[in-house]
Amino acid sequence: MFFCIAGICLSFSGSCKQREDERKIITYNVWYGYQDREHPRLPCYHSGQKRKDGIYQWLQDQNPHIVVFQELMDYSSEKLQKESAIWGHNYAVTLKDEGMAIGISSKFPIEVREVLTEGMHHGLICCNTGGIDVIATHLWPRFDEGILDEVSIVKERVIASMNNGNPVIVLGDFNAFSPEDDPYIDSVTMELYTNTWQWMLEDGRPSYRVIQVLLDIGLKDVCAGFPKNNEARKQRYDFIFASPDLAETCTDALHIRDKEFLKLSDHFPVVAQFELLQYDHFINQ
Fold first, then answer.
1. Which residues, at least 6 apart from 135, have a Cβ–Cβ distance to it below 8 Å?
2. More exposed terminus of the chain, fewer Cβ within 10 Å: N or C?
3. Domain ranges across the chain
């Protein structure tokens, strides 16, 4: 499927027709909440409104069930709820009303379990929507004890949900690389890692300890299961993880790498689709 957004052509394979047991989920870091600003390395539109229009038109075409945002700026839950009607969502919640925040919109009612900002640079939202426990986060953008403390907080929430027998999605901007991506990480990424980001190496490679924490408790990186994402695995830090049973229902996942998306944000969106065939009691929630 090809379509034009704000004068650029973007693509993602998908259908607007959905069954009741489907869940299409997107995570997207929208870079400083659509502010008017220049990026030091990327061709983002200087107009924040133009970027917002492009992202919202793309979301409308994608027809997702759940969207998780990072880097919304000064967004109340009411503001996000009003705007998310553009892509067919009537429910929304944000981490906080002022400053940079995580936001969630959904076609389904959102049962908020926890909104946490203490002890984290950005924070996390734990909720249930569409029959899935969603843990949305944006981790500290440096490799040090701070990010390790934050991923431990995420780990505690994941274990609690899985112990309750609930299907769990953990997603967002993790500011860390995965050990499962090590075979794909090349010299270009290593140069960015060491020279631009100035993050710490371990044994000559990026530290993978943050993502390893999540893999060790059984979460599955859904994009890793589809070879079409191998190019993206050279350099990605936005993820959608699923609990093991839920991961088995993932029918498609894509870490978009179309360079035209760099006019909209300095991050690429990640999309995953699930068919909750064995979760009949969650359907229509």
1. 124, 125, 126, 154, 157, 158, 161, 168, 169, 170, 171
2. N
3. 21-276
